[in-house]
């Protein structure tokens, strides 16, 4: 039976390159001179540090721009809450979402059934496999 998968993935190497480029830009920008603004990466989990919430937003914007230039969908970034650390400094956890959530997978499967096509959708972990009797 012919089949294809519906899945949401990002290229981990491109994410790493985008973070490195964003850190370089932050180091070279005049408005960040002398500040503790940076982005740290741990696999697909990013931590954004800055001196205050305003600069935190600017660092996040730089990160989004670099991700977009490297063809990473910025909608895959999930921003966490802003946390205050020593003094005025702030940090924010940013996770890069991969895979399809169970609720979305069920919606996709329901849409396929409602379309009354001669295909079946099955949820397999974090992807949806669409299979049919004919290739057409």
Q: What structural category do the secondary elements indicate?
A: alpha+beta
Shape: elongated
Low-confidence stretches: none
- Beta strand %: 25-35%
The N- to C-terminal Cα distance equals 11 Å
Main sheet summary: 4 strands, antiparallel
What is the overall number of helices? 3
Q: Roughly what is the average pLDDT, rounded to an integer?
A: 89
Q: What order do the strands of the largest sheet run in, or round the barrel if closed? A: 2-3-5-4
Q: Please give the number of β-strands.
A: 7
Specify Rg, calculated over alpha carbons. 20 Å
Helix content: 25-40%
Along the chain, the helix and strand elements come as EHEEHEEHEE
Overview of this protein structure:
The protein is α+β, with helices and mostly antiparallel strands and 136 residues long. The chain has three helices and seven strands; from the N terminus they run βαββαββαββ. The strands form two sheets. Strands 2-3-5-4 form a four-stranded antiparallel sheet. A hairpin with a 2-residue loop joins β2 (38-42) and β3. The longest helix has 17 residues, at 12-28. The model has no long low-confidence stretch (mean pLDDT 89).
């Amino acid at each position: 039976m012919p089949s294809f998968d519906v899945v949401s993935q990002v290229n981990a190497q491109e994410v790493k390159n985008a973070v490195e480029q964003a850190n370089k830009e932050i180091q070279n920008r005049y408005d960040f001179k002398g500040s503790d603004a940076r982005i740290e990466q741990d696999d697909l989990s990013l931590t954004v540090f800055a001196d205050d919430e305003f600069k935190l937003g600017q660092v996040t914007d730089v990160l989004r721009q670099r991700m977009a230039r490297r063809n990473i969908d910025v909608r895959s970034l999930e921003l966490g809450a802003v946390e205050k650390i020593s003094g005025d400094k702030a940090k924010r956890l940013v996770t890069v979402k991969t895979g399809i959530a169970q609720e979305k997978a069920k919606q996709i499967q329901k849409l396929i059934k409602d379309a009354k096509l001669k295909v079946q959708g099955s949820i397999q972990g974090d992807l949806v496999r669409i299979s049919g009797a004919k290739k057409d």
